[in-house]
Design brief:
Elements: H1 2-15, H2 19-28, E1 35-38, E2 41-46, H3 52-56, H4 69-77, H5 92-96, H6 100-107, H7 118-127, H8 136-141, H9 151-154, E3 156-163, H10 170-188, E4 190-198, E5 201-210, E6 213-222, E7 226-232, E8 241-252, H11 260-268, H12 276-284, E9 291-295, E10 303-305
Parallel strand pairs: 2-7
Antiparallel strand pairs: 1-2, 3-8, 3-9, 4-5, 5-6, 6-8, 7-8, 9-10
Helix pairs in contact: 1-11
Amino acid sequence: MKSIGYTLIAAAIASLGGCAAYDGAKKAQVDGVGTAQSASVQYEFRAADEMTIKHANSEPQKFASTATATDKVFAVMGMPSLKAAPAGSFTGTQLRQSTKEETIRYMSTDSSRPSSTGKDLEAIGLNAIGGDVGGAGMVLSLVAGSPKFDPRVTQGYVVCFMPKVDGQDMAAAVAGCGAKMEAMFAKTVVDVTKSYDLPNGQFRLGKIETTSGLKAAKVFMGHRGILAADGYAPVDRGGYPARIVAIPVGHETTNGSASGSLFDSMVLKTRGEVTSEQLAAALSKNLPKDTAFYLPDSERGPSAFY
């Protein structure tokens, strides 16, 4: 019975917002890209050459003055803004497997941009991210699909700009980022009543402080599907040589999720009472140095702090 229960739980989780992308990332790591240990948590990460996060940060990004926190985090991930490319026009596959030229096209409104150079990447933040985006060219260059497979609205990420340190490898950077993420959630989500460790990560039910007092929050901290790349921190973060690490995170908003009721009835039973904005605001009070994040919300739009 225990085996059957966990199988059903896994099925429920797989259909929760963002978890389809976690599974896709797991499949992309069948050859074993790398693991990192932080305290009792083991993380699996992908550090391949053909990922948007690597190409987008091969030079320090400089953002437009109008760029929002969400725009900036998306840019670091190598993803287009939702203004430039509506939900459903970008996929987890593109996030994990794209060339440098494709990444530039995703992040630029001009799909006819010539092959990539350092100047191209420098211009991304000025021309597309937070700028005057028409988006028609980009939308045509992306594969249309269902919003439920778009990582910008179905899952979130904590992003770390880990300074390169002599003698430390990518695994050390991933472990360091994982420790920062764990600390941020531990300080934010208090009075934890339930937590469940699963292959992809951990679900945790507790409370967060809001302007209306303590409210129930259901959060997810990923242990797999992590993306990592050598590159540079953005200009407004110092432009230093860095290892960029992105760890999947998620939550259940007040409006629930497609399979939230199944997961609730089997395990957590209680639905989160907070919106993505409320959770983001609470997390931001404990945001570690050299980090940023966004949380998904398919109805209201992502909430981010940078």
